[in-house]
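User: Structure tokens for this complex, please. No commentary.
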Amino acid sequence: MKNWIIVGATSAIAESVARLWAAKGYKLFLVARNEDKLADIAQDLKVRGADAVECFALDVNAFERHQECFDTALKSLGRIDGILIAHGTLPDQKACETSFNVARAEIETNALSVISLCTLAANHFEQQRSGDIAVISSVAGDRGRQSNYVYGAAKGMVSIFLQGLRNRLAPVGVHVTTIKPGFVDTPMTASFDKGGPLWASADQVAAGIVNAIDKRRNVVYLPWFWWIIMNIIRHIPEFIFKKMKL
Amino acid sequence: MSKPYVSWARYPYNSQQGMDLQWRTDVLPAVPSVLPQGNARSYGDSCMNHGGLVASTRFLRRFISFDPDTGLLQCEAGVQLADILNLVEPQGWFLPVTPGTKFVTVGGAIGNDVHGKNHHLEGSFGNHVTRFELLRTDGTRRVCSATENPDWFFATIGGLGLTGLITWAELQLKKVPNSAINLETIKYQDLAAFFALSEESESTHEYTAAWIDCLAAREKIGRGHFLRGNHARVTQPKPAAGKLKLGMPIDPPLSLVNSLSLRAFNALYYNRLMQERTSATVHYDPFFYPLDFVHDWNRMYGPKGFLQYQCVVPNEVSYDAIKEMLQRIAMANAGSFLVVLKVFGDVPSRGMLSFPRPGATLALDFPYQGNRTMQLFDQLDDVVVQAGGAIYPAKDAHMKAEHFRMFYPKHDSFKQFKDPGISSSFWRRVMEDNA
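Assistant:
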């Protein structure tokens, strides 16, 4: 039984993780934009066995409210064992290319808001001298590709930030897990033609996340074979890579 | 991952456009033709809308409430029976009716009014549904029960998703002393023995069904294993569920099910039992869901897919009709992996288009072999029609329009409840002559 904050709790992967934790009797503090959706999820998690579920409506781009959100979580949970940051948007790459404002908004949502929340959590856990920070980054952050490099850049920033954070917090026993899912069959990826061996369900990825956190893994690719795929992609020489259509 | 939205037998269609509902407040998309879909475990084309769109409830998978004192459960339509079992079994409750896979959704179980091994006592799934909400393509919502909007309630149970999309449902679960099953398996010699065992077990056993060796011919026809069971007593220890799960991660280039593998399987399976009778206490999983153990087992039939054939024939003629069908299958040397035979009880089904009705029901599957398969199905249809039986839409990809209308006499009054924005490949095949 643990107390966790989940940011982006209405995303399919986060919801699947929350179900697994609810069945273990966790106390959960859910954060997302939409209050009604949070209420539906809270109801479900209570039926599934969560010890308590509290909700907080927040648009992560309202950076000035992050402190309030974290304080409310602390008050409601009493003690915080961990924070899972799972929110994100899948940008329209073409729109990001034509408008810097779109690109900036995507980077704020997918990277800067994550960094802000992690900073709050890290400082709290550092004082507490315990805690887990788990963040859903992406395989897209491993190398810039023409098809989605704005998203990739944001996720890459998150991955590198987490590397540093892990390095900083290791001495005080605070752990940071970077999660890099591949193609996941969720409403966020509705525009893709799904099916085939590369696609995983949100439930599969969620089980991998729970396991990675339990085992205090540093960086985890989900499913595991993405580690091989991304290793290959990362090692293609740039002079070849730049001519590829990825 | 298999392609989403494609029916389980992957015949007649191996592709389907779809969209997902994520919240109960979502509405159906504004397109000319849409069909509500659950986890796409129907075999043929009743859950397909080829050329149109399906609206899947697979992400509508939340519980709303569960009262462990009364066993009343409310959940979203995409909740799977496996989810329900995981939640309620440790609290002493069980599904009142369950089909042979637990990976079907509640919405799908209602839309097909599914049945299980306890039909002779509990009727079908619809008999245990207390309420649900029906969303129409025009955006209207109706809460339906036996007393509130009853016409809509009875049209939607077994209504193949054609009356609207079920967003949530409420079910009355069953209290059991123990989820494990005290199972008795009896190796019997012929079809007459099956009917004798069935009759004898009806009042003593909650669950009954038989597996049939479909390649046995002549005087041995209908031989098989009769399974009957009751929930174990509260004091009995629960056996552990098997941990090993198999999968079919890829599509073999051709069907692994052929006359050779079938002959070997059926002979081995029949002779697996050394004694005439064995008894054991088993976990509910292998008893109710023996095939769920092999994930994506449908892929075993290769890229052409397969067909199921499930019919029911009235009790008065069931012996002769089943015998005739088994003979025709043996003659065609078609064979089937798992042939299941069960006698339905007389609990009336509530749906206007419900399949379960008094009689004996036979279910088989065949790899798709073109005309050869279709000709055999025609021969089986003749027997069902003559016997005054019916074929099960959830398993079907072949039934003729004239037969559907004969098997389901309420199809005409059903039409007034069908949503004009909803259609399915099945519906067009059996009800729209120009399709």
